[in-house]
Design a protein that fits this description.
By secondary structure, the protein is α/β, with parallel strands linked by helices. The protein has 22 helices and 18 strands.
């Protein structure tokens, strides 16, 4: 008897429906075809043990299982339940009249219990798109899939619950989630707040500007000056995720298997902080079976690279294209996967190997030329993509010991949201452009016009301070953001002057 059940494969952050055809016929054999990997080929033993625990068995007949489309590589153990239910229905051990209405996914333990799968959300979205009535999967993934409206989601603890559901013996409980309630519940759930930061008013202002225009930022300062503390608080002043952004971010984390079973949707902007020993593949994604890397896990959020010069040079260089394109394509011989990677880069570094170059009280012990050599570990093209490069000076004791509290993240965020709304309106006719950092040269000509006095100021400063040519565009973009924060339609001289102060590393005197 030929029976079809339905599962799903993950490609990038999207799902593809897989038809599992099971035919039980005369003879003795077990064949599994359709480009399954080793994990799927080993499913026979897991299925046999799981069925035996509940009094069922794999029939001793000829069983041919085809996973269509047959030219697409199938990976992972999540097809165990799909295949097991197909075998039971094809051998007439359970009823088969409802199978065509459901996507069925789950990894089986030897005792028949169901283990978590990856990619529950994109699978649920594809199931709804393809017109399936429901989705049966492990209970620990049910909340994640249930955020898809218009699809019945059933979480099961073991295979027996699924068998009883198809035999109309005991119904499965439908999992229901109010996505807006879940989204709002943790919308303000930030561990760190700018109210905890003493002093560093100029750096906090630079962080606000970076957040308002989604500008990449590099913090350079001696150990203990507060670089990491400030970076960790940046997500708390970024605009809240929209539901569309939250769904896209959740899809990426779901595919990577990073979702918490108690958190059905990611409602706060991600903050990823990889160690400097990370490989290029782990950073941008890939591997034998492509998976999203740290830059994709930071999509719609912040990627923080602490001790930037300590990262391998080839690791940093692979960031250049994703920072421009805001996506990464992983190509293999037989497949290609694209992952979104629209993130804010926040980097921190010491100014020199000993850490005390330009320190107000401690002398630098590095030999002549060591500061430039240390900075040269970061390539010019990468620095060129960092709009704000700021020196962080240690906080004096007088400011550290004060009991006066600074602004809260919530207060700063309101100003950032206001500036972002101005930018959304400005770029509404440009697809995929939402903030000032994403402007191209043509847009800058239209939106970054400055007065003759401002042009003269910019020329004078670039000549006197030895600012590099690449600083010109960055200063204009940042000054446009400062003007937005100020509610000004035009870029004034004071906006340009502030933007110029955020280009410390472009000065020819730096490190000499």
């Amino acid at each position: 008897m030929l029976i079809k059940t339905y599962g799903s494969a993950i490609s990038g952050i999207n799902a593809i429906t897989i038809t599992v055809e099971v035919n039980v016929d005369k003879g003795i054999n077990f064949m599994l075809v359709g480009l399954p990997d080793n994990a799927i080929k080993e499913s026979q033993q897991r299925i046999a043990s799981a069925l035996n625990c509940y009094g069922y068995k794999i029939p001793g007949n000829k069983i041919v299982i085809n996973m269509a489309p047959a030219d697409l590589k199938k990976e992972g153990s999540a097809y165990d339940l799909t295949i097991a239910i197909g075998i039971l229905a094809a051998s007439e051990q359970i009823l088969s009249n409802k199978l065509a209405d459901y996507i069925i996914m789950g990894e089986l333990s030897l005792d028949g219990s169901l283990q978590a799968i990856k990619g529950a959300l994109p699978i649920a979205l594809e199931a709804k798109k393809q017109g399936f009535k429901g989705f049966i999967l492990p209970k620990c993934n049910a909340q994640e899939a249930a955020i898809v409206d218009g699809l019945d989601v059933y979480g099961a603890e073991n295979i027996m619950e699924v068998i009883n559901f198809f035999d109309n013996v005991v119904p499965l409980n439908k999992t229901q989630i109010d996505i807006r309630e879940e989204f709002a519940k943790s919308l303000e759930n930030y561990e760190f707040d700018f109210v905890d930061v003493k002093g560093q008013e100029s750096v906090k202002r630079a962080m606000e500007v970076a957040a308002a225009g989604s500008h990449n930022i590099l913090l350079v300062g001696s150990p203990g000056s507060g670089k990491t503390m400030l970076a960790k608080r940046l997500p708390s002043i970024l605009p809240p995720l929209t539901i569309e952004e939250a769904l896209e971010t959740t899809k990426i984390h779901s595919v990577a298997g990073k979702m918490n079973k108690f958190q059905p949707i990611i409602s706060v902007r991600p903050f990823r902080n990889p160690h400097h020993t990370i490989s290029d593949v782990a950073l941008v994604g890939g591997g034998t079976y492509p998976q999203p890397g740290e830059i994709s896990l930071a999509h719609n959020g912040v990627l923080f690279l602490d001790e930037l010069p300590e990262f391998k040079r080839n690791v940093l260089e692979v960031l250049r294209q994703p920072m421009e394109e805001r996506s990464i394509t992983i190509s293999r011989t037989k497949q290609s996967s694209e992952y979104p990677a629209s993130f804010m880069l926040v980097a921190a570094m010491n100014p020199c190997p000993c850490g005390y170059y330009n320190h107000p009280t401690q002398a630098c012990t590095c030999p002549l030329g060591a500061v430039n050599k240390y900075l040269n570990k970061i390539s010019g093209p990468l620095l060129d993509r960092i709009d704000i490069q700021l020196e962080v000076v240690p906080v004096p004791f007088k400011e550290l010991s004060t009991i006066k509290e600074g602004e809260t993240s919530a207060t700063i965020r309101q100003r950032v949201i206001k500036a972002r709304k101005i930018q959304e309106e400005r770029f509404k006719k440009y697809p995929n452009v939402h903030c000032n950092a994403q402007m191209n040269t043509q847009m800058m000509k239209e939106f970054c016009k400055i007065q003759p006095s401002g042009m003269e100021l910019l020329r004078t400063v670039m000549d006197r301070l030895g600012l590099s040519a690449r600083a010109y565009d960055r200063i204009l973009k940042v000054s446009r953001t400062i003007a937005d924060l100020d509610g000004s339609e035009n870029i004034r001289d004071e906006h340009l002057a502030e933007a110029i102060t955020y280009r410390n590393l472009d000065r020819e005197s730096w490190g000499r």
